[in-house]
Design goal:
heterodimer, A: 191 residues, mainly alpha, Rna Polymerase Sigma Factor, Chain: A, Arc Repressor Mutant, subunit A, 8 helices, globular, B: 176 residues, 9 helices, 2 strands, 66% helix, 2% strand, disordered C terminus
């Protein structure tokens, strides 16, 4: 007996637009982890990240008919989540709630180790991971977004171009500049 | 003419890593990296950073993420239903009718009983009729009133002109 082929995201959103709520749940299951990963890299707070992703799905639910199959569903939902995350970041900056404690990464996602113990493959250990996340967090917004989409979410240049509504050439040059900035910031990691 | 300055080479690093450069430019980068230790170091670090980014641990949404979302949607749907009912023309008309009815009722009540001061020791029942639980205190209440000089009859009649029970109240209060 052949297994039923998985529906594409676009088929699922079409089903949902036609009233099939199970299709929406399927989309939630497909995207919740990816989006939490995405938004967390902006906000560095798991609770806030989950809230933002919930808001993203609520927007999809309420505005399901706003989606047109001219773009991939993934670029649509990433655009919504990215806008919410960036808006939240701007709100935080306006409120000046950025304190050093917010930058402390105290959720223990990455366990810091003594960098002195690992002189060879330091960029591959958890300490480096934490330092890289701090460095991404400190990047200017356009570079931050682009590095998260390209190097953490591993989206194609074409998708990033659609999500950010900028030409492909600009995407590539921003990725390069963002990586160089990260490299510059992290140059102390491995001399 | 070849542009082999360090800035130009650094601008090519991402595409160089991803093998998407033309063979001509790729050859330029190769040649430059072979001779420029500064750019070679930058490229090595860049490669390490990108590899680390790809290896960052993947996060997962909490286990109750979907159930929380679905309950929020359920609440949202209920609110939407109420909003629809509230915003429907039928409910608006019904709302206006109820409001008009209340205004008319209040108006009639005012016309029938324009002043109904509640005096100490005097209670009123649901119909606005004064009930004095202790007839002995009414005389004190009447004395403290600024219109105490008026005959008790006129006061009572003014307050409740159509209330026949006031006649019995007057008898109970001993004013006549």
């Amino acid at each position: 007996m052949s297994e039923k082929p998985l529906k594409t995201d676009e088929q699922l959103i079409a089903d949902f637009q036609n009233g099939n709520e199970n299709a929406f749940v399927e989309l939630v299951d497909r995207y919740k982890d990816r989006l939490v990963n995405f938004v967390y890299r902006f906000l560095h707070d798991m609770t806030d990240a989950e809230d933002m992703v919930q808001e993203t799905f609520l927007k999809v639910y309420k505005n399901k008919h706003a989606y047109r199959e001219i773009a991939k569903f993934s670029t649509w939902i990433y655009t919504i989540a990215g806008n919410l995350a960036r808006s939240e970041l701007r709100k935080r900056k306006r409120r000046k709630t950025y304190t050093m404690s917010a930058l402390s990464f105290d959720d223990n996602e990455f366990t810091p180790v003594d960098p002195g113990k690992d002189t060879e493959g330091i960029v591959f250990n958890s300490y480096a991971g934490e330092e890289i996340m701090k460095a991404i967090y400190a990047l200017a917004e356009p570079f931050k977004t682009i590095i998260i989409l390209r190097d953490i979410q591993e989206l194609s240049y074409e998708d990033i171009s659609t999500i950010l509504d900028i030409p492909m050439g600009t995407v590539k040059s921003r990725v390069n500049r963002a990586r160089l900035k990260l490299q510059e910031t992290l140059s102390y990691l491995k001399e | 003419m070849q542009n082999t300055d360090c800035t130009f080479i650094c601008e090519q690093f991402t595409e160089y890593q991803e093998n998407s450069l033309s063979s001509e430019i790729r050859a330029q980068v190769d040649t430059h990296l072979a001779s420029c230790s500064a750019c070679r170091e930058i490229f090595q670090k860049l490669t390490g950073v990108v590899e680390t980014l790809h290896k960052l641990p993947s996060l997962q949404a909490s286990t109750d993420f979907t159930s929380t979302l679905l309950s929020r949607i359920e609440t949202l749907n209920q609110e939407t239903v109420w909003q629809k009912i509230y915003s429907s023309s039928y409910s608006r008309v019904a709302g206006y009718a109820i409001a008009a009815g209340l205004i008319v009722a209040i108006g009639i009540n005012i016309l029938i009983d324009p002043i109904s001061p509640i005096k100490p020791g005097v209670q009123s029942n649901y119909a606005g009729e004064k009930i004095n639980p202790d007839p002995r205190t009414e005389s004190l209440a009447e004395v403290s009133d600024s219109s105490a000089n008026q005959p008790a009859d006129s006061l009572t009649l003014q307050n409740s002109p159509i209330n026949s029970q006031n006649q019995s109240m007057q008898l109970v209060s001993g004013k006549k």
